[in-house]
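Researcher: Here's the sequence for the chain we discussed earlier.
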Amino acid sequence: MSTSVRASAAPVHRAALPTRFVVLFLLSLLTAASGFLVAPGQAHAAQAPILTATAPAVVDEPCTSSDPAVCMIREMTPEQRAQARETRIRYHQLLDTMEDVADRMHAAGSSDEEIARTLVDMRNDAKDITRAGMSPEAVQALEARNMKKYGNPLGPTADQQYAKYGSWSAVIAAATRSSAAVDRELGLEPRG
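Model: Thanks. This is the structure I predict for it:
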């Protein structure tokens, strides 16, 4: 009986490993290609009005947002903000890729738990890759927040997400959501 369990589990593991490498390759390709598409510190022409509309007014009041990432964005220069927006757009593209992976895994008969675990790992990999283009100070602040909240610099584990949401299908849905507050602060439409 243990042979059949091992045999049925092995293809899932082998299928998940190449998917992860493909996603990591795509993430690095997107990150590298974005440098050719957008000059550092400049947004695409079609995005400039959004950036102008969302640029924060200079105020001496402390940030009242409960999200430290929003407070960091509000302290950025317009050039840093444009770069942060481009990074966030790449992150959204990675979340789109994750949805495609989930659809393929569902079609292949993977369980919700297998899919959720794969997506949580992919999301944390996506965070790690998109942070490569951020300032060391910004990365340090995000990692400190996650360490305090989850005990992991990249974010929650699949088991922590399961404990929070109570089902693997809810973990799958959460894995491809983005922070609405951060998205709005950067002039983007929130996901999920």
